[in-house]
Amino acid sequence: MSDDRTTTISATFETRETADLAVEHLVQQHGISRPDIFIRAAGDRNTAGAAPSGGDASHEEGARRDAPLAGEIEVSVDIASSQATAVERSFADAGALRVSSR
Fold first, then answer.
1. Is 16 inside a domain boundary?
2. Which of 8, 28, 88, 91 is the residue whose CA sits 20 to 30 A from 100?
3. What's the rounded Cα separation, in Å, for the pair 74 and 60?
4. Does residue 46 lie within any of the structural domains?
5. How far is it, in rounded angstroms, from Cα 46 to Cα 53?
6. pLDDT band at residue 7, thresholds of 50, 70 and 90?
């Protein structure tokens, strides 16, 4: 009999760029649909991450100063329990600061 329990895996990232990379790993490597992946600020303030990245970091005059750098980004996904270890590894490979499951 197969294990069809669902678990939620969450990870926090310092930048929006690394959070986006994690989402791409989930979609491309694990076949998870984008509507099943959730991205939000890890705290209570709107944020683009805790540090400049991507377009914010490569601005001609240095890092942009208007991006809301108010904290970390959280990515979470509800998956079959059998995928948990692989998804946790993908989050770590993408640069997660912390990974948890429930």
1. no
2. 28
3. 29
4. yes
5. 16
6. very high
Q: How many Å apart are CA 59 and CA 72, to the nearest integer?
A: 21
Q: Residue 32 domain-assigned?
A: yes
Q: What proportions of the chain, in percent to the nearest 5, are helix, strand and coil?
A: 35, 25, 40
Q: How confident is the model over 45-93, as pLDDT tens digits? A: 666 555 555 555 555 555 555 555 567 889 999 999 999 999 999 999 9
- Asked whether residue 52 is assigned to any structural domain, the reply reads yes
**Residue type for position 82:** S
Residues 91 and 9: beta-carbon distance below 8 Å: yes
Q: Considering the chain, what percentage of its residues have pLDDT values greater than 70?
A: 71
Please identify which residue in the block is written with the tokens 């009999």: 1
Residue 58: domain span: 6-11+24-70+82-101
Structure tokens at 75: 């990515």
Q: Which whole number is the average pLDDT over 42-46?
A: 69
Structure tokens at 31: 């076949």
